[in-house]
């Protein structure tokens, strides 16, 4: 079974100015993060504007990521939906493309009970043997998986990982303690809980800022997991310096895309109703990238 | 321009056991609530499992409600979506069917900024002159309209009403105070904030429990708005007695449907991934309906 | 038994510049609020810096209020403390001075269980027949009375009233619904929940801003309780205009004292560690008092 | 200057059945925790029912702890109060007794502004050179120190440590990151944030459960700070097993005292209004102590 751990960037989906899919840019982005040293790749998740993709686009994205990654690390395909049948449609695309795992959330928007979430995942598991990473993101989906429910779901062999993004340490630490004997718990918000979660037993993180951070993200992970805490702490502080840039960047993931563009990496446009970052927002982003030492090299070159 | 006020039930969408749309049942439900004395009807909102309807079904529902209502009260059609273009597709259906207004939420799931929400509604307004009731439901959509944003949107003539469902009195009272000079603020959760909101200046409420409450809901509204506070308070207490029934009923609106069935009104099945209420849940519902004095008459008849 | 209802100002305790007690000023303030039309007076509560008073001062304050009020309305004496024995010491002072009731909180700072709070009040009741108004102020005391506990305490004949200051409508409305058959529920934060609470069945409010509001506060109460909702709503909006003034005024009740001084009413100095309002804060306060129409008369006179 | 770090138990104050101070028991408890391997001792803090002690008792406690510790580790004396003058009175007792540092909270109950808290500490510093550990406990005191304020206070040389007990990781991690270059940040709630805080840069913790945990607490600290994460994680899980025992034990620190009694360590009675643990609560505590492997030895002995 696939092992999801380490640094897994949640890739944005590059769109051209006419908002059509820019597969070539996605392939470049995929190569860049692999060169940075990541341990897996997630495509068509929230960072990838999963809600804005039709089935053909989703398949094309899955195929591009699988093809470009060429087996070096696992590729995870985002397959969230309200309905089991639609989740399965997307899982079939992931299977067809050769993804190694799929990411699924509890049904968003409908505010299901814990019992109906359990049945939802059981029905998915009955339909497909694809390894599943559950994505718990209560703010976005309007529903939180309880620790008890996750404990139950962890018994399912095809549920291999949990990505927890609730910003709530009590929740995250409990997920880790209760479930890490049976699945891989991956954190998020590495600036906030990165080191804490890895110390507690998270085996990695799925993170949308990693393509912006570049090699700094794998450096952070290696430092945190080899006992070099001072280095890990110092990188964490640098990561949090990006916060004002993202805050000034409009609706996520527009800010990630703008930061990538500024860094010369493939960012591109977001799709409606998400608007591109304003010139003022881009300028703030540029400054925090310098402040965090991420634009340093480039800026130094320009000044030279 | 249409005036949305008073008691507006959010109707469930009856499905048959095979989960196909039961339009005849919807028509009966529509007639029943009009007989109860309501002042408007909302169809294909959250209570109507808006997420589970395709365009043909949505149009059929809109047409059935308009036809059955026959101009006696306004009909509001639920048209929420992430994308402006998809909202407009649905608004066209509402226009075509003859609805009097449409209900739209901020884009769910994508967690937009206040600025992107503003643009979202401005783009919708630019496309259609249909009167809009904005629906603020942060828990479900993952995003809250700020009071400042709503104040700005209230200046748009086609935005005629706000349905506020945040359960937060500070928020609700501020919406009422800031915006009621330009639009109709409608509450929700009448058991919790019904009387308070009407006293503060809400002109009515959009409520999913009203089809279950029957004439009790209009009685509550009349009492609350004619100064008969003791009657209003007493009804409010009865309404809150239903709470354990809904808590035991699984994912909303399964409990509403079960309660309607118990009362001999058209409830029907929910669509996946929402599961029907269990026999145990139905029994709890039956008991709270009796406890609240809503099943009294029927029970008395049976005993006679 | 004393009936606590209507408008009950929580009086500040005027201190001179050397921080000694200014009893003459307290007597004037007491007269002023009675002239404004209040229905009761609370002294030595939180607004009265109860924590900064020794027993002699507390007794002198109780006596001054009782003497000045001369039986026209009830006088409530603040007697909060961590220990039953110390509460009783203070209650004896209130009895001796002729107060009509005492105000007591759950033991602050020690975070007691609901059970230990119950015992605390039972032990107090066993010692003294003085009518008690319980003051629930979780933010300050670090402990919240549950609705169930209050329901139990409401059965005690000597517990005649509840002052609820949690800013939480769910809590306040439940207290009213569950307990108002046995005791008088009084709200707080009239700008936020004034009209709502009175509609729900609160019989009045204990409020620290009333001495600043002057006759406006009784006007609000009369409007709200005689069905003149538009007048009540309009006054509520004016009351909330004071908010930025209090926010700029440092630690409560320094801002109340500054506002009283600006209005020519007896305010005076607060005791350490509470610092007097800065000149900038006083200027903001002056402006909001004008903006709310409370300084209008005076300002007009000056300009004339 | 004294260095506060490592494992610092917050000692309870043993009272006899007549609620008089049991200094001999305190001396025994002090010896026991030193034998367990702690790195400092806090007396007359919240765990020590600081609110229930008069000045003579406080001095006697300070002297007993200093005498018994005999310079092996630092002794910290609890000196919290609302008023600067009263804090200083207590600090004088600590100086006189030979304590190495004092613990002070922001003024409880009065809900001061950040500015008035700053002045409060500045006035204390101006009066005494005793090293201060600030104790941030918002739930109890009703006021939270902001990260910005703590950052400013960290510049004061006599403020040598911060004990943070807010259970909020965002807060705790920010305190550590912003202030650890100038003072020692100590966590609390080791079952919840122990390992996380130490990884992030906390240098230890002040903890009330340590006298119950015995050598397990220093073992946890050594494991966590020498990279033996699996051992640290395992101990953390054992520590959290005590939670139901404390939840069933009434008002803190009654449960600590009951657990100590069960373990044959000096616990004793709490002072009113805190009531002793009920027999049922003690039985639950006994069971969780066995479940956590803390009573293991004793139980084994009994069974033998």
Walkthrough of the structure:
4 copies of one chain form a homotetramer. In chain A, helix 1 (23-36) packs parallel to helix 2, helix 3 packs parallel to helix 4 and helix 13 (254-262) packs across helix 14 (279-291). In chain A, helix 4 links the parallel strand 4 (101-105) and strand 5 (132-136). An 8-stranded parallel β-sheet of chain A has the order 1-8-7-6-5-4-3-2. The radius of gyration of chain A is 18 Å and the shape is globular. Chain A has 2 domains: 6-228, Alpha-Beta Barrel (TIM Barrel), CATH 3.20.20; 241-295, no CATH class. With 304 residues, chain A is an alpha/beta fold. Chain A contains 15 helices and 8 strands. The first copy, chain A, has helices spanning 23-36, 55-69, 84-97, 114-127, 138-141, 147-153, 169-179, 190-200, 210-213, 216-225, 229-240, 243-247, 254-262, 279-291, 296-303; strands at residues 6-9, 41-43, 75-78, 101-105, 132-136, 159-164, 184-187, 204-207. Chains in contact: A-B, A-D, B-C, C-D. At the A-B interface, helix 4 and helix 5 of A face helix 4 and helix 5 of B.
Provide a compact summary of the structure.
Four copies of one chain form a homotetramer. By secondary structure, the first copy, chain A, is an alpha/beta fold.
Mean pLDDT of chain A: 96
CATH class category of the largest domain in chain A: Alpha Beta
Can you write the helix and strand succession of chain A as a string? EHEHEHEHEHHEHEHEHHHHHHH
Number of helical runs of chain A?
Answer: 15
Helix and strand topology:
The structure is a homotetramer of 304-residue chains.
Chain A: E1 6-9, H1 23-36, E2 41-43, H2 55-69, E3 75-78, H3 84-97, E4 101-105, H4 114-127, E5 132-136, H5 138-141, H6 147-153, E6 159-164, H7 169-179, E7 184-187, H8 190-200, E8 204-207, H9 210-213, H10 216-225, H11 229-240, H12 243-247, H13 254-262, H14 279-291, H15 296-303
Parallel strand pairs in A: 1-8, 2-3, 3-4, 4-5, 5-6, 6-7, 7-8
């Amino acid at each position: 079974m696939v092992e999801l751990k380490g640094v897994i960037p949640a890739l944005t989906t590059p769109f051209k100015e006419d908002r059509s899919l820019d597969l070539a840019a996605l392939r470049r982005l995929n190569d860049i993060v692999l060169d940075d040293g990541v341990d897996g790749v997630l495509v068509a998740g929230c960072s990838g504007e999963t809600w804005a993709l039709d089935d053909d686009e989703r398949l094309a994205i899955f195929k591009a990521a699988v093809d470009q990654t060429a087996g070096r690390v696992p590729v995870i395909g985002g397959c969230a939906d309200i309905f089991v049948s639609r989740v399965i449609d997307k899982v079939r695309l992931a299977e067809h493309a050769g993804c190694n795992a799929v990411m699924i959330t509890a049904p968003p928007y409908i505010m299901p009970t814990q019992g109906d979430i359990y049945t939802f995942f059981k029905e998915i598991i009955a339909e497909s043997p694809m390894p599943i990473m559950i994505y718990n993101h209560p703010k976005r989906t309007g529903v939180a998986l309880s620790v008890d429910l996750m404990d139950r779901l962890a018994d399912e062999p095809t549920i291999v990982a949990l990505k927890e993004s609730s910003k709530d340490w009590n929740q995250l630490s409990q997920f880790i303690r209760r479930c890490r004997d049976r699945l891989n718990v991956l954190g998020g918000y590495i600036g906030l809980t990165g080191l804490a979660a890895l110390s507690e037993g998270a085996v990695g993180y799925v993170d949308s800022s990693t393509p912006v951070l570049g090699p700094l993200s794998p450096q952070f992970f290696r430092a945190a997991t080899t006992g070099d805490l001072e280095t890990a702490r110092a990188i964490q502080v640098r990561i949090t310096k990006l916060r004002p840039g993202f805050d000034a960047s409009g609706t996520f993931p527009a800010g990630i895309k703008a930061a990538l563009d500024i860094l010369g990496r493939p960012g591109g446009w977001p799709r409606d109703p998400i608007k591109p970052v304003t010139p003022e927002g881009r300028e703030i982003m540029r400054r925090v990238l310098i402040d965090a030492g991420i634009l340093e090299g480039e800026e130094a070159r320009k000044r030279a």
